[in-house]
């Protein structure tokens, strides 16, 4: 658990469903439970280069709300000529991570195969903000085949995704998964923590904005509609201060029909001039201004 109560989970390899089932109790007790009290989660897949298709529903299910099942992918396997639908699990061991909490997935150019499918699914679900680099665009499952009776082997894709979440034939294979926020892989965690800091501050920002509208906005009749807008605004796509300012201005002006209603982000002035040493002490030695008019005149003349 990082500063700001942000949970961090790094996965470099994804074992198959059988192994996960055997280790499930240990993983839930010693890893997953440690993250349940966090206010947001970072899933680091920057170094994940391998995995098994059977584990996709297992991992995604812990990040999907209970009570419903979701069709997340359909996998075609060429050797067996079979098609398998992948659905989230109706029940999981332990708790699911709350859908009300923000989640970021970190990626790099080394993120491959099953890890890419998981990233794509979470992105399509709207469950995670993807930060980092475009993923490898590798194959979902590879198999090494001997060429005849020679000492030569051919490695080729034998399974492919037919479209996560039933979204058609276009998938991440070959092209990779584009991040929501592109940044070099080595800077992805820092960038993610900055995004989560902004999102953690959103409730307070909106509260201050509501107070300002109620107390100062002159077009009083439009205030209730503006407050209703703020209370129901969707901030799921906000990943920067620029995004937030643009969304607030567009939506507030559309409802108020007032182009003068503007929100700005004002950064602290790092180079603001500092008071000279002793300035406060000098101010403290100035004589008090007398209340009597004649005395004030005498003070001005003496200065």
Automatic annotation (TrEMBL):
Residue stretches making up the Tail specific protease domain: 1-184
Taxonomy, superkingdom: Eukaryota
InterPro entries per UniProt: ClpP/crotonase-like_dom_sf, Tail-specific_protease
Pfam families: Peptidase_S41, Peptidase_S41_N
Record flagged with keyword Ribosomal protein: no
BP term (GO), one: proteolysis
GO MF assignments: retinol binding; serine-type peptidase activity
Region named Disordered: 268-289
Signal peptide: none
Keywords: Receptor
GO cellular component, one term: cone matrix sheath
SUPFAM superfamilies on file: ClpP/crotonase
PANTHER family: INTERPHOTORECEPTOR RETINOID-BINDING PROTEIN, RETINOL-BINDING PROTEIN 3
Full protein name: Interphotoreceptor retinoid binding protein
Organism: Rhynchocyon cirnei cirnei
Encoding gene (name): IRBP
């Amino acid at each position: 658990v990082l500063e700001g109560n942000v949970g961090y989970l790094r996965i470099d390899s994804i074992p198959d469903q059988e192994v996960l089932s055997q280790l499930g109790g240990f993983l839930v007790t010693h890893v997953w439970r440690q993250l349940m009290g966090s206010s947001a989660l970072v899933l680091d897949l920057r170094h994940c280069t391998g995995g098994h298709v059977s584990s996709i529903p297992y991992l995604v299910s812990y990040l999907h709300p209970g009570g419903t099942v979701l069709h997340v992918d359909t996998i075609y396997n060429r050797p067996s000529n079979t098609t398998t639908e992948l659905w989230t699990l109706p029940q999981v061991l332990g708790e699911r991570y709350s859908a009300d909490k923000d989640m970021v997935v970190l990626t790099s150019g080394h993120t491959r195969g099953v890890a890419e499918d998981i990233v794509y699914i979470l992105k399509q679900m709207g469950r995670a903000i993807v930060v980092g680099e475009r993923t490898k665009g590798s194959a979902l499952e590879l198999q090494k085949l001997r060429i005849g009776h020679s000492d030569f082997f051919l490695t080729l894709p034998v399974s492919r995704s037919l479209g996560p979440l039933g979204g058609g034939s276009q998938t991440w294979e070959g092209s990779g998964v584009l991040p929501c926020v592109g940044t070099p892989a080595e800077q992805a965690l820092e960038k993610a923590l900055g995004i989560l800091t902004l999102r953690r501050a959103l409730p307070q920002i909106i509260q201050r904005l509501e107070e300002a509208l109620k107390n100062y906005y002159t077009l009083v009749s439009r205030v209730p509609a503006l407050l209703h807008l703020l209370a129901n605004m969707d901030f799921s796509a906000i990943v920067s201060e620029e995004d937030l300012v643009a969304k607030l201005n567009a939506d507030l002006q559309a409802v108020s029909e007032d182009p003068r209603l503007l929100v700005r982000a004002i950064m602290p002035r790092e180079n603001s001039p500092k008071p000279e040493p002793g300035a406060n002490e000098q101010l403290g030695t100035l004589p008090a201004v007398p209340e009597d008019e004649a005395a004030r005149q005498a003070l001005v003349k003496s200065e």
